[in-house]
UniProtKB/TrEMBL annotation:
PANTHER family: UDP-ARABINOPYRANOSE MUTASE 3 (PTHR31682:SF44), UDP-ARABINOSE MUTASE (PTHR31682). One of its GO terms (molecular function) is UDP-arabinopyranose mutase activity. Keywords: Cell wall biogenesis/degradation, Glycoprotein, Golgi apparatus. Probable UDP-L-arabinose mutase involved in the biosynthesis of cell wall non-cellulosic polysaccharides. It catalyses: UDP-beta-L-arabinofuranose = UDP-beta-L-arabinopyranose. It comes from Zingiber officinale (Ginger). This is UDP-arabinopyranose mutase. Belongs to the RGP family. It is an enzyme of class 5 (isomerase). It is found in: Golgi apparatus. InterPro entries: RGP, RGP_fam.
Length: 353
């Protein structure tokens, strides 16, 4: 593991000592220059994917720890096989080794976006605001985020629900290249997202959503144990569904635990997408299976005796084995990997389980 220290730190930013920024990279970290004004005060956890012989240089002035595949193998031993290799899902190793309450994860080809006024968007600050204010999963507020300055609960909103729920996840969006699947990319290769929607919504209880890993923040203490970006590298059939698997596990557990999931602001600028045909080869099993997988999650009920996220996740892995194991043997491996993730979490975070 490599480490570095910051040189000059601006004034006291929100959650500076309670949040880690996790970056998976198989390329380079030049994009950090664009984020420097917003990221420099924070600690970075860089998960270097691919060949450990490559050297990934971190621009000066950032406080970071960097883990390559040798580090992952050394720290996790045989369990390392459950952390995807040569796939962005490796980022979840950063969630395991972090000791902070909050995580923000971002891709190395995502840059600072501008709002309609032309002002640079501090995505990290917006995520923090989303996570520090409650969610409204049980009753939809038609003026969207009621905790936002200049908004509130509208007439008819039950006062008994206005305290809201703890927010576990803040899912941000992307200007420029939208996170489309390969078939959509193929038919709309030049479509760009130019629409800036100035809203943050809570995903209602019982509803699922596609969670993209490229601009995502979460309360690691609340929901980190369910944020396994599972078993999706090229040696597996279900590639590019790492973040979606985590999304659906997290959402069914948040619904059970009474936590909220928000989506909307902040936007980042997604600079590029992989070639659609490469993505199609990676995604095709997942696209086929997702109809069964989503129906499975929609049918999941967790027992009353599962009162912690870890207990929910273990129960969920058992249901994955029993019900999705019939779809394909891959899901039995994935159910095992979910258990290995929990074992690794408990070993690395003995005080957090
Ligand atoms: O083998 C790899 C490939 C990439 N990375 C790092 O992961 C992120 C995302 O990589 P990339 O931008 O090439 O891929 P996208 O298709 O844009 O990724 C999005 O699709 C989702 C499905 O997997 C994923 O959650 C999103 O991030 C970059 O930082 C790469 O450097 C890697 O570590 N290993
Ligand atoms: Mn990308």
């Amino acid at each position: 593991m490599a480490a570095g220290s910051s040189s000059s730190v601006p004034s006291d930013p929100l959650l500076r000592d309670e949040l880690d920024i996790v970056i998976p990279t198989a390329r380079n970290l030049d994009f950090l220059e664009a984020w420097r004004p917003f990221f420099q005060p924070y600690h970075l956890i860089i998960v270097q994917d691919g060949d450990s012989k490559n050297t990934i240089s971190v621009p000066g002035g950032f406080d970071y720890e960097l883990y390559d595949r040798n580090d992952i193998d050394r720290i996790l031993g045989p369990r390392a096989a459950r952390i995807s290799f040569k796939d962005s899902a490796c980022r979840c190793f950063g969630y395991l080794v972090s000791k902070k309450k909050y995580i923000f994860t971002v891709d190395d080809d995502c840059f600072v976006a501008k709002d309609p006024s032309g002002k640079q968007i501090n995505a990290l600050e917006q995520h923090i605001r989303n996570l520090l204010t409650p969610s409204t999963p049980f009753f939809f507020n038609t003026l969207y985020d009621p905790y936002r300055l200049g908004a509130d609960f509208v007439r008819g909103y039950p006062f008994s629900l206005r305290e809201g729920s703890p927010t576990a996840v803040s899912h941000g969006l992307w200007l420029n290249v939208p996170d489309y699947d390969a078939p959509t990319q193929l038919v709309k290769p030049n479509e760009r997202n130019t629409r800036y929607v100035d809203a943050v919504l809570t995903v209602p209880k019982g509803a699922f959503f596609p969670m993209s890993g490229m601009n995502l923040a979460f309360n690691r203490e609340l929901i980190g144990q369910a944020m396994y970006f599972g078993l999706t590298d090229d040696s597996q059939p279900n590639v590019r569904y790492d973040d979606m698997w985590a999304a659906w596990c997290v959402k069914v557990i948040c619904d059970h635990m009474g936590f909220g999931v928000k989506t909307g602001l902040p936007y980042i600028w997604n600079s590029k997408a992989r070639t659609p045909l490469v993505n199609l080869r990676k995604e095709h099993e997942g696209i086929y299976w997702q109809e069964d997988i989503v129906r499975f999650f929609q049918s999941v009920t967790l027992s009353k005796t599962s009162v912690t996220v870890q207990e929910c996740y273990i129960e969920l892995s058992q249901q994955v084995r029993e019900k999705l194991g019939k779809v394909d043997a891959y899901f039995i491996k994935l159910a095992d990997a979910m258990m290995t993730w929990i074992e690794a979490w408990n070993e690395l975070n003995p005080s957090e389980n």
